[in-house]
Design brief:
With 403 residues, the protein is mostly helical. It contains 16 helices and no strands.
């Protein structure tokens, strides 16, 4: 764990397990190299056109399957075993994809990579909730997200260098980083005490019935899903808009760098400043800021305009860091934290998949203006809906603490 003088003040009082997950996540995300360069790798193997969509579709489908499975496993067999299954399985799948002889074997390997990799997140989020009480969870999840962004930003630079020297290096580093994270899990993390049988409700079953019977969760998760859909348009529709403006792909790379620098530099400071405010109000304000920033993309026609839009939604991303996962953790009973986080992960995967499919379809068929207006209206409406639920969520959290 880092020495206290070098810790950002917002995170200084968090327990060692949170810092272990933070460090392991940076290592893991440093190796998150294959997916961003997958299209180029496939082209090098002669896979183009519609065949590429089969592999990418399988990759997207795995992000819908993995969180659901990971949530159940995290509650049934434990956090650490679930993380190890996901990390080792995804590492093996990297090798399978590199060695796959045809399109369908590539698609199967891509499905396994994303499904196994996304199995890890519900277990990590549940472990964070186990380790940190309600008042500090937002900061714990923000720190974890900060680690994801640090690793991803550094990994983007590393990936470009390695790809130029051979795609096999991307697969080797990706698989190696997962195995290194698995070693961290094995030797540095302890499995938390499991709830006793008396702590569980008899009718919870082994699946997601406990979540589906929670009316407040069923209201909250779709609102988060809409907000995540709007945010995911930054990965999907922004490149299309830059292309249609006649700008080079290097401009999109520059916009990604602007986002990375802002998030990595500002998140600890903003989290420390906003932690004293009601988290649902902050979440709503940040989500509205993201919606406005995404909608501003429709007004941009040059580098300056796109930079303004990226700065606006990046600031929104910084504001909301860690809040949604913390809210879901606070809604969950202790014995079902994995499944609640699995449901949240599935919501995230569905939102991203919808952005890849529905978002692109709206952009290309109905026109960019329709998509940008939809993002603005849907994003601000979801932010307002989240704020309207604030009192109910606060009462639920207070009741759980009292119990």
């Amino acid at each position: 764990m880092p020495s206290k003088p070098f810790m950002p003040s917002a995170f200084r009082d968090l327990p060692p397990v949170v810092w272990t997950l933070f460090s392991g996540t940076i290592v893991n995300r440093l190796g998150y190299l294959v997916t961003p360069f997958l299209v180029f790798f496939l082209a090098s193997r002669g896979v183009t056109g519609s065949d590429t969509s089969y592999v990418l579709g399988a990759l997207g489908a795995g992000h819908l399957l993995g969180p659901a499975v990971g949530g159940v496993l995290a509650d049934r067999i434990g956090r650490r075993p679930t993380m190890l299954i996901g990390l080792i399985g995804a590492s093996a799948a990297q090798g399978a994809l590199f060695l796959a002889p045809g399109v369908w074997t590539m698609a199967a390997a891509a499905l396994l990579i994303s499904a196994a990799g996304s199995t890890v997140s519900p277990a990590v989020y549940a472990l964070l909730a186990d380790a940190v009480e309600s008042e500090r969870r937002r900061r714990a999840y923000a720190l974890f997200g900060w680690g994801v962004n640090i690793g991803t930003a550094a990994g983007g630079v590393l990936g470009g260098y390695l790809a130029a020297h051979g795609y096999w290096l991307l697969f080797a580093v990706d698989a190696g980083s997962m195995l290194l994270y698995a070693l961290v899990v094995t030797f540095r993390l302890k499995e938390p005490k499991r709830p006793t049988r008396n702590d569980r409700k008899a009718d919870d079953g082994i699946g997601y019935g406990v979540v589906l019977r929670d009316r407040l969760a069923l209201l909250t998760l779709p609102l988060f899903g809409i907000q995540l859909f709007v945010y995911s348009l930054t990965e999907v529709a922004l490149p299309l808009a830059i292309r249609d403006s006649g700008l080079s792909p290097a401009v999109y790379g520059a916009m990604a760098a602007v986002n990375a620098v802002l998030v990595v530099a500002l998140q600890p400071l903003v989290t420390a400043w906003l932690t004293r405010l009601p988290q649902l109000a902050v979440q709503s304000a940040g989500s509205a800021l993201i919606a406005v920033g995404v909608a501003l993309t429709g007004l941009a026609d040059g580098v300056a305009g796109y930079t303004v839009s990226v700065v606006v939604w990046s600031l929104g991303e910084v504001v909301v860091a860690g809040i949604a996962a913390s809210v879901v953790a606070n809604l969950a009973p202790a014995h079902a934290r994995g499944r609640y986080q699995g449901a949240f992960g599935w919501t995230w995967g569905t939102a991203r998949f919808a952005a890849l499919t529905l978002g692109v379809t709206v952009y290309t068929t109905l026109g960019p203006a329709v998509l940008w207006w939809t993002a603005l209206v849907a994003g601000t409406a979801a932010a307002a809906g989240t704020l309207a639920l604030a009192k109910r969520i606060e009462r639920r959290t207070e009741h759980a603490l009292a119990a």
